[in-house]
Amino acid sequence: MSISLKNRTINREISWLSFNSRVLQEAQDSNVPLLERLRFLGIFSNNLDEFFRVRVATMKRIETVSKKKELIGDKTAQEVLDDIHAEVIRQKEVFSESYNQILKELEAHDIYFVNETELTEDQKVYAVEYYRENVAPLLIPIMLKKAPEFPYLRDKSIYLGVKLISKRIGFKKQYALIEVPTEERPRFIVFPEKEGKRYVMFIDDVIRFNLDKIFGLFEYENIEAYTIKITRDAELDLDDDVSKGFYDRMKKSLKQRTTGQPVRFIYDQNMPKDILRYLTKKLDIDEDDNIIAGGRYHNSKDFMKFPILDPNLEWEKLVQTDHILFSKSKSILTAIEKNDILLNYPYQHFRAFVLFLREAAIHPDVKEIKISLYRVARQSRVINALISAAKNGKQVTVMVELRARFDESNNLDYSKKLQEAGVKVIFGIPDMKVHCKLAVVTKVIDGKITYHAVIATGNFHEYTAKVYSDMALFTANQEICEEALKVFSFIEKPYLNFRFKHLLVAPAAMRNQYIRKLNREIKNSKEGKKAYVFLKMNSLVDETLIRKLYQASRSGVKIRLIVRGICALIPGIKNLSENIQIHSIIDRFLEHARVFIFANGGDEEIYISSADWMERNLDYRVEVSCAIYDEQIRSEIRDFMELQWADNTKARLIDGSLENNYVVQKPNAPKIRAQVDFYDVIERHQKALK
């Protein structure tokens, strides 16, 4: 009998907002370095922007189609939108309080934010000169009442809505619009240091200070400027014209994204009602479009790039190491042939993967390289290594996912660059994203074929490998490598059936495999055998697997979950989920690795994966989970998981209350911060390999 989920799950949108609230907690944590707290405000803001562009936009689409459509949590789309709006307003208040507190604490370190009304004479001179040389050439003021049509407001940009007033007879008040050039210039302008004090000014205020230089010719008596921002639907609608290739249809769709429908409008709460009414009317925005009164400044995501004013107010510099088995070997490929090797990012260098590709590019026995790319760095050494391989006569096949959200343009550019270098580029499967992270190198020596594979939980991306916590398995296990090649065959020929023993592959069978494993745990529990599940993922939403976890809990299976983001499952419900506990860690690095451990009656199974337990991953993406067999690596992963569970510094309890309470440190228990203490775990395991 299927378990009902009515009132037994949390709506995914509300759960996501709870996750972002945990990010906001980091900005409030006095143990976090001060400038990093400011950057967490930026991360929170950036997350919220994407949430509106994607999830709120989706809710609005659903609401437009059917006002009676129910979602998880038994609410209509409009009811969910109302809940979202209420929670966003609540979090906005917390954000403002956190921001003001951080500003006060920065002053204690002689760092001051100033606006255009607080400048000294020297700073006024600097602001005028900076404006003249760096800002004025980029501005395009638009007199709205004189413009032939109302200008299009771009997503991600911020604008100054300007009100111009004069007492001259016959003069009508005017409104103008100025886009703030944050793509071309830094958002934060740092004045020359004076007597050990550092002063920072938003570029918005630099423009405000110089408004008379823009409009002064017309002798206005009063000029006021207020910040506005619009967020648009970012969903891509692909052209159905079969005469066009996927590359061309994606390029056209990206152009159309810029004209997405508004889903949020933020304005300075001090903006006069007359200009607010004028703008919202011209933009055809009403209360259903999430009109939100904000502070003086918007696009707080720019705090992510706040200048380094005091290294003592930032995280200590990240120390990355090379894996000892790579350090001991002149050849990456030879090292992999001797042992399976697990890299833990960001603790260990991503450059090992780049060296893996570079060696394959020039190795005389390497004949072929296949790789799947979802996101890559703007200046990608991975791409350069693949081009080098093609120019060295290797057969290189690259699966580029053009629909990686917000990286589509970058991927389009790189796919063209790869093709021009002679690389075979494939674009995946219609209506399905390729999200797995695979690379396979083929060596041929005297007719004997040897494969080397890398299977990762995160992207082959130099930058994210410094800030995301991920895992990458390097293996020459031929059975695993051959199955990885089958995944590439499936991508190119999805109409064929393939069998897998060591990999769990979506969409073909991943969910069903997890169900079988959970059913086995249920059976073992009833028979008195070891029965437990220990899972780590970014999101848990899939209804089928949630029902199965509830069933396993009812049957006595002990379940521990570490879920960074969305979690629809509610632990601790009597007679349903009493055997389930859930933690979530938000810290310096973004927790991104997916790890799945099943007791299996004592013969424990361990998998690493690219996939969360979400419908989109299991049904609409090509994903891979890989079994881990090497005992040293299995031990390292177990230690990683147990350390994460023991965290009593950055771990929060996830439950139906959505309060995000921290895991309480028990009396006399040592303080454990998993992301910091994992350095010791890695060092211990590296010493064991010497």
Automatic annotation (TrEMBL):
GO CC terms: polyphosphate kinase complex
Biological-process GO terms, alphabetical: polyphosphate biosynthetic process
PTMs per UniProt: An intermediate of this reaction is the autophosphorylated ppk in which a phosphate is covalently linked to a histidine residue through a N-P bond.
EC number: 2.7.4.1
Domain Polyphosphate kinase C-terminal positions: 332-494, 503-675
Pfam family, one: PP_kinase
Domain (Polyphosphate kinase middle): residue spans on this chain: 123-306
Binding site for Mg(2+): 375, 405
The reaction(s) this protein catalyses: [phosphate](n) + ATP = [phosphate](n+1) + ADP
Residues reported in the UniProt entry to bind ATP: 47, 468, 564, 592
SUPFAM superfamilies linked to this entry: Phospholipase D/nuclease, PHP14-like, PPK N-terminal domain-like
GO-annotated molecular function: ATP binding; metal ion binding; polyphosphate kinase activity
Cofactor(s) in the UniProt record: Mg(2+)
Catalytic site: 435
UniProt domain Polyphosphate kinase N-terminal: residue ranges: 10-113
Assigned keywords, A-Z: ATP-binding, Kinase, Magnesium, Metal-binding, Nucleotide-binding, Phosphoprotein, Transferase
Family annotation (HAMAP family): Polyphosphate_kinase (MF_00347)
Family: Belongs to the polyphosphate kinase 1 (PPK1) family.
Protein task: Catalyzes the reversible transfer of the terminal phosphate of ATP to form a long-chain polyphosphate (polyP).
Protein name: Polyphosphate kinase
